Amino acid sequence: MPRAPQPALSNVSLVDRAYRIRRNALRMGEVQGQGYIAQALGIADVLAVSYFHAMRYRPENPEWEERDRFLLSIGHYAIALYAALIEAGIILDDELESYGTDDSRLPMSGMAAYTPGMEITGGSLGHGLGLAVGFCLGLKRKQSSSFVYCLFSDGELGEGSIWEGAWSASHWKLDNLIGIVDVNNQQADGPASQVTGFEPLEARFESFGWHVQRVNGNDIDALVAAFDAARNLAEPKPRIIICDTKMAKGVPFLEERERNHFLRVEPHEWRKALELLDAGRTA
């Protein structure tokens, strides 16, 4: 039976949610002067649809038992998830300025012990999907209707643990698991598709018994349709949404940088980035 998503938290549009997530990420990046900003800007639309359309949770009670779980396998994307958690009201906006500093609840790599709404510690890449399988099995035993969303990257597809997780999820017919792959074709060693060729990605997951959709991860309408289809699928199988995203989406001069896996931004450029993001919102 289809399960009802989180009721809308307000009348703010998903486009505006994504804009605010991007703005939060830029403000946090400015605190350190560097970071995984391009990934945060690229995945903002996916996070907006996840948190403000698809997921069920209570901002005032991040550990509510009936919540949907969002697992961030890519620990260095923490800045993106913090930006979404701030927009969702799970983390206070006042904490934004503490990003990456000593004793902050917002370390540069996500840690579940520190941050409300951070379900797992995901710094060691490739383990999130296997953890998601365990979460889903536990929820099944509790007869819970909650979903588990697991975000991982194309750079993690070279890890054998990802495919062990994919195989296990299919074996257990985990219809409460929705995987999300961020395909931005960039990792520390260069283009992800050249480091470990992962295409044809749809066919690979289909061969493991998953329901597969591939969409433009910066198209809000396409994402809404994909998340709805994944949640409402009647077949007892895990579901995956492959999201092709653009690194640094919304800030043209950062989009154009050849290597933007880890960005170092000059002090005067942060203001320029925010101004361009604001201008794109009103254009």
Task: Give a brief rundown of this model.
The protein has 283 residues and is an alpha/beta fold. The chain contains ten helices and seven strands. It has a five-stranded parallel β-sheet with strand order 2-3-4-6-5, sandwiched between helices.
Give me some keywords for this one:
283 residues, Rossmann fold, five-stranded parallel sheet, two-stranded antiparallel sheet, 7 strands, disordered N terminus
Question: If you had to describe this structure to a student in words, what would you say it looks like?
Answer:
There is one protein chain. Helices cover 42% and strands 12% of the residues. The chain is an alpha/beta fold and 283 residues long. The chain has one domain (14-282): 3-Layer(aba) Sandwich (Rossmann fold), CATH 3.40.50.970. The chain has a five-stranded parallel beta sheet with strand order 2-3-4-6-5, with helices on both faces. Strand 3, helix 5 (160-171) and strand 4 form a beta-alpha-beta unit. The chain starts with 13 loop residues before the first helix and ends with a helix.
The global form is: globular
Q: SSE string, helix = H, strand = E? A: HEHEHHEHEHHEHEHEH
Side by side, the strands of the main sheet go 2-3-4-6-5
Task: Summarize the amount of helix as a percent range.
Answer: 40-55%
CATH architecture: 3-Layer(aba) Sandwich
Mean pLDDT: 91
Can you identify the CATH superfamily?
A: Thiamin diphosphate (ThDP)-binding fold, Pyr/PP domains
Overall structural class, as computed from helix and strand content, comes to: alpha/beta
Q: Tally the beta strands.
A: 7
Transmembrane segments: 36-54, 74-92, 112-137
Organism: Microvirga tunisiensis
Keywords: Membrane, Thiamine pyrophosphate, Transmembrane, Transmembrane helix
Domain Transketolase N-terminal: 30-261
